Amino acid sequence: MATQWSVNYLMLHSLKATAQASLINTPTCSAATEGIVKMKVSVVSRSGREIIKGGIDLSDNDTVDDLKASIQQRIKKYYPARQRLTLLQSEKGKPVVLERGKSLKDYFEKDEGKLVVVFKDLGPQVAYSTLFFWEYVGPLFIYPIFYYFPVYKYFGYPAERVIHPVQTYAMYYWCFHYAKRILETFFVHRFSHATSPLSYVFRNSCYYWTFGAVISYFVNHPLYTPVSEKQMKIGFGLGIVCQVANSYCHILLRNLRGPGGKGGYQIPSGFLFNIVTCANYTTEIYQWLGFNIATQTVAGYTFLAVSTYVMTNWALAKHRRLKKLFDGKDGRPKYARRWMILPPFL
Fold this sequence. Notes:
alpha+beta; two-stranded antiparallel sheet; disordered N terminus
């Protein structure tokens, strides 16, 4: 009996020692979560009204995407693409936009224990590819209607009309351009922003579709007077060269960004970008100049003037932004002097 008692005592002592060793070697829950800081995120409107009552509990290991997903869980209609989150604006400077994919710790001060973000509803959104598709598909199909079908009889003209060679070439040129733009939308372009407001689909489509109809109406009109063959060849020759150059510019811009539009701002280089900041806009403008040299309509030149004005504003803004970002200081490259959009004028 004494021997049995001694064996049991030794076994119990051994199990106790093993258990203590296991506790020593196993990390505790607090050690495993060491370094993770719990935080309260308050979501407010620009007027200071609380959007999410009581805030959202997250950790600084979570990302901006996690925060947006949490907001959508509370309010279903606010899907991530519809949200714009910024930090409270200080007295000086612009508000800081919370970028997708970034960790909340990049914006969070640990000693404060909370993060206050300002929420803005961007409204219903669509993918940029959807926006561009609807912009371009209208002109692609509207223009040939005036060429192929006897629509002018509804405007008081004879159904039969003489079709000049320049009208045929103009129709092919126009359709090639917009077919190219649609293909580039889906297979070339990489967008820095994933979505655009739904309202832009209607606004931009109105612009492109209306000009497409008006230009086609006048170029294919029964009373249209064609330019000389030499002028037609010069115009379409310039336009075709610029269309091909425009496509190559878009490929160079695509290579500046990774899949999903990642890559940030970089200095475009190569080909015409070595001498012009926005070579893609330059070739776009000059290709429409070529079209109008060949066709000679007031509607076409109006479209060229409006497009040039819009793209020039875009180019000036991009030129200023690149010069500011790449100022040659603190190891940043220096943005070289070059034309902005319309050499030799601007």
